[in-house]
Amino acid sequence: MGAAGAREIVQMIHFEDIAPGETIPCGSFSLSRDEIIEFARRFDPQPFHLDEEAGRRSHFGCLVASGLHTQAAAIGLMVRRLADLDVVAGRSLNTARFYRATLPDQTYAVSVEWTGLQPTRNPSRGAATIVGRVHDAEGTLVADFGVTYIIRCRPAEVT
Amino acid sequence: MGAAGAREIVQMIHFEDIAPGETIPCGSFSLSRDEIIEFARRFDPQPFHLDEEAGRRSHFGCLVASGLHTQAAAIGLMVRRLADLDVVAGRSLNTARFYRATLPDQTYAVSVEWTGLQPTRNPSRGAATIVGRVHDAEGTLVADFGVTYIIRCRPAEVT
To answer: Is residue B153 helix, strand or coil?
Structure first.
């Protein structure tokens, strides 16, 4: 394979490489009416997530996405952005709060920020917490959430 | 419609009707390999959720479902079980913790328990927190999670 092959070796991001405080943009998502209804049928069948007319009669005044769907769409973007992270496992999904409804066919931007690093009992792994934020096109915070991952430490160098 | 029609009127569950401390069984779910992979492609594309071989090489030793998928499947059952609850909106998804991996084609039982009731600034609504638990077929706790809902109070009687 030579040089071209060598370039394909992925440089994994380890626990020591994580820098809290930096905001990392992850792109944006949009949910169609059909996607909102399909997700809700499977995972959150409340009337205002399933039906246009029930949405109009609800607190929201229109069909809105499940908060679970908003969280999942945002985490999907985050995981793609952090694909090189050497994750052992997810430990917890931390509290997700919903400040505004997620509306059909609107664009929502996702950004994340590492907020906490903790050792674990296993010295070859650390626990790292990331906070994600979802903003609408006007820049208003729509939702935030957190995830704690167990991340591998950098392998010891052979000397 | 007469008596048969009258019987179809849904009696909504209001904030005052919620009794903390009672365990409410919500049924069980099972996730196929295809469902695990499809969900992960959209919302949590980590190698051990996407690919059998990557799962084998991972901490888990096999393909495992995303924690987000486990949480969503459990909430789907909970929402169906609590369909008569007079929900205004979801306020937060509280911390979900994952103690064991969710494996393909296994049966997981879901139960929920109301744990907290709080007034809100609007006297016609209350905030109610529910904790959900996912157990495997051996009765081992696999995951738990919480949701805080804003629930309508019973309408004042016309006297």
So the answer is: coil
For residue A112, the domain's CATH number is: 3.10.129.10
Rounded to whole angstroms, what are the CA distances from B58 to A30, A87, A153, B63?
Answer: 32, 9, 15, 9
**Tens digit of each residue's pLDDT (9 = 90 or more) over B80-90:** 999 999 999 99
Measured between CA atoms, how close is A58 to chain B, in angstroms? 7
Helix (H, G, I), strand (E, B) or coil at B124: coil
Whether residue A126 lies inside any domain: the answer is: yes
Determine contact, residues B27/B57, Cβ cutoff 8 Å. Answer: no
**Min Cα separation B82/chain A (Å):** 10
**pLDDT reading at B27 higher than 60:** yes
Facing residue for A90 by CB, picked from B43, B45, B98: B98
Residue A158 counted as domain residue: no
**Contacts with B72 (C-beta within 8 Å, 6 or more apart), sequence order:** A42, A43, A44, A68, A72, B39
What domain range is A50 assigned to? 2-152
Dist. CA A79–CA A149, nearest whole Å: 11
Q: How many domains does chain A have?
A: 1
Provide the pLDDT confidence category of residue A126 given band limits of 50, 70 and 90: very high
* ipTM (interface predicted TM): 0.91
Q: Does B120 touch chain A (CB under 8 A)?
A: no
Q: From its phi and psi, is residue B27 left (phi > 0), alpha (psi between -120 and 50) or beta? A: left
In this complex, how many residue pairs, one in chain A and one in chain B, have their CB atoms less than 8 Å apart? 83
Within-domain flag for B157? no
pLDDT tens-place string over residues A36-72:
999 999 999 999 999 999 999 999 999 999 999 999 9
Residues constituting chain B: 159
Instruction: Please indicate, yes or no, if residue A54 is contained in any of the structural domains.
Output: yes
